[in-house]
Amino acid sequence: MATSHPFTLLDIERELNEEQRAIQSVTRKYVLDRVKPNIAQWYESAEIPVRELARELGSIGLLGMHLQGYGCAGTDATSYGLANMELEAGDSGLRSLVSVQGSLAMFAIYEYGSEETKKEWLPKMATGEAIGCFGLTEADHGSNPAGMLTNAKKDGNDWIINGNKMWITNGNVADVAIIWARTDEGIRGFCVPTTTPGFSANLIKHKLSLRASMTAELVFTNMRVPDSARLPGATSLRAPLMCLAEARFGIIFGAVGAARDCLEVSLAYATTREQFDGPISRHQITQEKFANMATRLNTSMLLALHIGKIKDDNKITPQQISMGKFNNVHSALEIARDARSIMGAAGITTEYSVFRHMVNLETVLTYEGTHEIHSLVIGEALTGISAFR
């Protein structure tokens, strides 16, 4: 029984150029060959070979791929988005690895670091030889990073940093950490090797989502770093927020990948699963679900591509990125839930990807800006009134 790929309905491929299609194809092949055969085991065991995967991802040019120079591929923003889509079709944890490495840690160094810091870290991070993490969120200061308690005090030519960060992807395996701290002059960023005395990372266990991703608490106890570790271009809270905007752009595409995989898996299942003397795909309610899922998916993809074009023209705004994440993650979660309902009990097993995507998307909905916070960003853009205070 023939099924149609959901993107053929609106001929999405026509929106892509040859280079973008090639990058998407290379990433898709990597996910199919390396990730999909192993992801269920990694997820169930809550163990993932981060260092091995980072080197592999670096070898095909996916780490910091949208940055120029320093060993980075220098692709356009849309190509970076498409790579994120294919990575998250494998698992949100894999996309998080690439996103944190390239759009948070590497971008912070690239945009705000000294030339010496860029030369020291970016080439190694682009190949996956070195892994980075991004320390902004604290246990009591997630949506309001301006309230952070981590502090850095000047001591001669050094800084003494005390505090902790929570929910830090790759924190326990990182070689370098981008740490944001309050100083007497305001929020500042520091590029700190994780071998620095006073730095420790504790793996967070017992997660029910993003299990194929390493998450840690970072603790800084009288950690002394030289002034050369400071990111000189980062002079306010705007710096880490711009890093987050870079990462959210990848999520806009990544969520489409998870949703697409859910639709593809449930569609294939429904054409072979028989009930009442025929495949369940023939039933009206099931077809209505597929119609809704495909429409949400194509709408999300077109929104992602539109935002990608704006970013490639260097005209992107944080409000546009917020709208992309607000719509696409929520739509992906609805698609995952419908796909799970079509698959019944089979949908909750690790044999299929749907439930894994669904619980991962529950986390994606609330990290790097909760669904509610992004709604307020959009609301402020429309009304001119901030609802944050």
Low-confidence stretches: none
Into which percent range does the helicity of residues fall? Answer: 40-55%
**How many independent structural domains?**
3
Biggest β-sheet strands, sense, barrel: 4 strands, antiparallel
Write down the Rg.
21 Å
- Provide the CATH superfamily of the largest domain: Butyryl-CoA Dehydrogenase, subunit A, domain 3
Largest sheet, spatial ordering of strands? 4-5-9-8
Tally of contiguous helical segments: 11
Number of strands: 9
CATH class bucket of the largest domain: Mainly Alpha
Distance between the termini: 56 Å
- Give the overall pLDDT as a whole number: 93
Task: Please identify the structural class as seen in this structure.
Answer: alpha+beta
β-strand percent reads 5-15%
- Principal-axes shape call: globular
Characterization of the model:
The structure is a single chain. The chain is an alpha+beta fold and about 400 residues long. It has helices at about 20-35, 40-45, 50-60, 75-90, 90-110, 115-125, 240-270, 285-310, 320-345, 355-365, 370-385, and strands at about 70, 70-75, 130-135, 150-155, 160-170, 175-185, 185-195, 200-205, 215-225. The chain has three domains: about 5-125, Butyryl-Coa Dehydrogenase, subunit A, domain 1, CATH 1.10.540; about 130-230, Butyryl-CoA Dehydrogenase, subunit A, domain 2 (Beta Barrel), CATH 2.40.110.10; about 240-385, Butyryl-CoA Dehydrogenase, subunit A, domain 3. The strands form three sheets. The protein has a four-stranded antiparallel sheet with strand order 4-5-9-8, covered by helices on one side. A three-stranded mixed sheet has the order 3-6-7, with helices on one face. A two-stranded antiparallel sheet has the order 1-2. A hairpin with a 2-residue loop joins β4 (about 150-155) and β5 (about 160-170). The model has no long low-confidence stretch (mean pLDDT about 95).
